[in-house]
TrEMBL record:
Coiled coil, from the record: none
GO terms assigned for molecular function: thioredoxin-dependent peroxiredoxin activity
InterPro entries: AhpC/TSA (IPR000866), Thioredoxin-like_sf (IPR036249), Thioredoxin_domain (IPR013766), Thioredoxin_ResA/DsbE_sf (IPR050553)
Keywords from the UniProt entry: Oxidoreductase, Peroxidase, Signal
PROSITE patterns referenced in this protein's UniProt entry, alphabetically: PROKAR_LIPOPROTEIN, THIOREDOXIN_2
Protein name (database record): Peroxiredoxin family protein
Entry EC number(s): 1.11.1.24
Keyword field contains Metal-binding: no
Domain annotation Thioredoxin: ranges: 266-422
Gene3D superfamilies: Glutaredoxin (3.40.30.10)
Species classification: Bacteria, Pseudomonadati, Pseudomonadota, Gammaproteobacteria, Steroidobacterales
Signal peptide range in chain numbering: 1-26
Amino acid sequence: MIRRAVRFGQAAVLLVACVSAASAFAGPKKFPDEGVWRGEFTVDGEAIPFNFEVKGKDAAGAKFSLINGTRRDHFVVERVSDDELSVPMNTYDAALAIKIVDGKHLQGEYRDLVPKRKGARNLPFTAEYGRSWRFVEPSKQAAAAVDLTGKWALHQADDAELRDKNNNERDNRRNQVGLFKQDGTHLSGVIMTSVGDTRELDGIVQGNRFYLSHFSGPSPRLIKGTVDEDGNLQGSSGSGIYNVARFEGERSDNVELADPYKLTRLKEGQTRIDFTFPNLKGQPVSLKDDKYRGKVVIVEVIGTWCPNCTDQTKFLAPWFKQNKHRGVEAIAIAFEQEDSFEYFQKTVGKFQSFFDIQYDLVFGGVADKKVATEKLAGLNYMAAFPTTLLIDRNGEVREIYTGYTGEVTGQYFKDYVTKFNHVLDELIAEPDPYSNVSQVKGP
């Protein structure tokens, strides 16, 4: 027995020694070098460049930041193996899967994690350390032959419309506004539609050609085109998830989009909306609940998959914390990429935590405008996610705002904030019609 115990002990020591030797042979865990990187997604054979910065020596405590002009979006880093990392895209159900070739070279893919289409929209990428340029290396850049600085009227169209220059159906195209700023060959800006914006674009002008891209968590976007002899634009916009769309444009200081306060409205004869949806705990939430009686209520129709929705929530969540003591409540109705309450709990639970949301979040159903229109009785049509409804103390809808324009849109964003606060101030100042209901007079 003693000899067998000795042999067992020797074997255990030998096993530990072998494991230690194997670990030593495997070498230290890899991690990307700290600093700025340049990546390239490959989408249908075309490159969509992006830039990011790594801070930290290992996954624990490291910060991964996507760079788009002046915009920075920060993400945590998770270690998968000695040479593999994962960067979850915060509130979006996606992640960057990274294989570390060495400290200065990476390869991997953008992974769509939505269960029913998992893997269907993965986009491969490579990245190289120490390259802060986006489209063209500085030493290889050509001079810009045009200056795109200013405001542009853009018209999205299909191929048939673009080929027929004499058609008079321009009003049927999807109108957009481009706000661009050019400094030498560097180009930045944003494109606004009647329902949102592209977030900040960053790129370059080479000769009479321009290139812009954006990647901040949702699918990457590429916009490119030319400026013709008359100073007009022809281009295309697309990404790895959305279809490529072509557009034309001309300079216009006076171009404006459709009024976002008039796109979605109440049906004729309606003054209210009505709904009952479950919150994260499965409890029904309705505007008829005592919690909302006599309060001003902000109803926000969102999806965690929607970039403009997350930008709007980034504004609303802190605004609500600062103003909830004034007699105001809020409800966010989420329409998600899966028609599943469990999936809603996963995505919206993460969303609530990320933005520290202190108002109710409820599940409306699957992300579909038609579904949202049917479930929000009283509205004529849900034109976009997000849509914000402002409801007075009597329970009547006073304003409906379609879409959201973020900080990058400059004066448009400032105007939105000014009107939002003005309308809320007015509604909050109105008397609570139920304040004396509970007071019962004696005989």
